[in-house]
Amino acid sequence: MKNRKYKIGVVYFDDIHIVPHFIGPVKAFFNDPDFDVNILTHQGENGFLFESLERHHLPAGLVKQLPTYGYRQFIEKIKKRKKPSPYYLFKKHKKKLLNEYDVLIFNDINHEYLHRNRKGKHPRFVLLMHGAGDGEYLIGSRYRDAVSKFDLITTSGPKITGYFRKMNLPETQIVPCGYQKFDIIDDTVKHRFFDNDNPVILYNPHFKRNLSSWYQFGPQILEFFFRNRNYNLIFAPHINLFNKRGFLKPEIIPKKYFEADNIRIDLGSKHSVNMDYTLAADIYLGDVSSQIYEFLYRLRPAVFINTHKRDWQNDPHYLHWHAGEVIRNLHDLASLLNTASRWHKKYIDKQKELMDYTFMFAKKGEASENIKRAVKALLKNDGQG
């Protein structure tokens, strides 16, 4: 019979786009007397994390900020890195992380170092999927090998569950729970980011060159909206496009676009990750970001740019392109924007179908509760309950 609380450690060594994917489950664990929960993160700027905790009435004391090695602090300061390397954080704190917690929860496959040092099945490793797109990475051998090492994988719904089923993972390892990010959004408010009532277009390109429309068409898209002031543009790319080491620098974007009153450029604020933009926009413009499914939380017109001339119609990794118009260049962009309310009608049924395939929809908060129940069941099956 269990005579102590389960100790849950939520590992957060990533960028801010991960935060909305674990706050809901953290709240569910915190409100359950069977659990003690901590968020394990790096030292330094964690403003959005603490702001999110406060907004959901969770104590800041849940956060444990782990220092890296002294020599690594010096190296990272010299190299002007925004956050320390997860590898060295895992290395420095592995004994504590592996011995103190019953469960470590990850939102990404950055668990490999700890897995190599784990003795048996303690602690249990749980993966909470972030994003719900159709990406090819889901079938890659590296990804398949990494996810197989988790003891529990929670998914947003039938689509992602189907990907994992094809990997021949044990049935009990994969549990559809819903999309926990939807638990914490405020969908009663539509933020106004412009001082006019013109249509708002969200341009949300991917960060990888072989998938992104930015490298070929990004500057042209900014110029299009600079010259067409009857539209508002929110340019909010995947947070890694301008923030990830080895990718682009903000300085390449001409100053005039930052100063245009109908263009909002956001390369990585809280609004770009908490669905404020996907809820505020009238039309989506992008390529393969999973944020299209967050945009379709409310069904609206979507335009996709087929930069790399993909033969996409029967490719499951481009399933979301069936939710709107697909173009190969920008020649028809003005016409599509002008007539969006008309052509969108023919995509509404498909958009509904895709959303039902992607998500288990339930009451607000239920996905996070499902995740908590799945973790509790995992522990009870170990004889810890």
Assembly context of the chains = single chain
Q: What percentage of residues falls in helices of 4 or more residues?
A: 25-40%
Kindly provide the name of the CATH class of the largest domain. Answer: Alpha Beta
SSE series: EHEHEHHEHEHEHEEHEHHEHEHEEHHHH
Could you say how many structural domains there are in total? 2
| Side-by-side strand order of the widest sheet | 3-2-1-4-5-6-7
Structural class: alpha/beta
Instruction: Please give the CATH architecture of the largest domain.
Output: 3-Layer(aba) Sandwich
Please give the number of β-strands: 13
β-sheet strand percentage: 15-25%
- List the uncertain runs: none
Q: What does the largest sheet look like?
A: 7 strands, parallel
Radius of gyration equals 21 Å
Count of DSSP-assigned helices:
16
Structural features:
385 residues; alpha/beta; Rossmann fold; seven-stranded parallel sheet; six-stranded parallel sheet; 13 strands
Structure notes:
The protein is α/β, with parallel strands linked by helices and 385 residues long. It folds into 2 domains: 6-179 and 361-381, Glycogen Phosphorylase B (Rossmann fold, 3-Layer(aba) Sandwich), CATH 3.40.50.2000; 200-358, 3-Layer(aba) Sandwich (Rossmann fold), CATH 3.40.50.12580. The protein contains 16 helices and 13 strands. The chain has helices spanning 23-30, 47-55, 70-78, 86-100, 112-117, 141-147, 158-165, 214-227, 240-243, 255-259, 276-280, 291-295, 333-338, 340-343, 348-358, 366-381; strands spanning 6-12, 35-42, 63-66, 103-106, 124-128, 152-155, 174-176, 200-204, 232-235, 263-265, 283-286, 302-305, 325-327. The strands form 2 sheets. Strands 3-2-1-4-5-6-7 form a 7-stranded parallel beta sheet, with helices on both faces. Strands 10-9-8-11-12-13 form a 6-stranded parallel beta sheet. Helix 1 crosses helix 16 (366-381). The longest helix is centred in the last third of the chain and has 16 residues, at 366-381. It is globular. It starts with 5 loop residues before the first strand and ends with a helix. The mean pLDDT is 92.
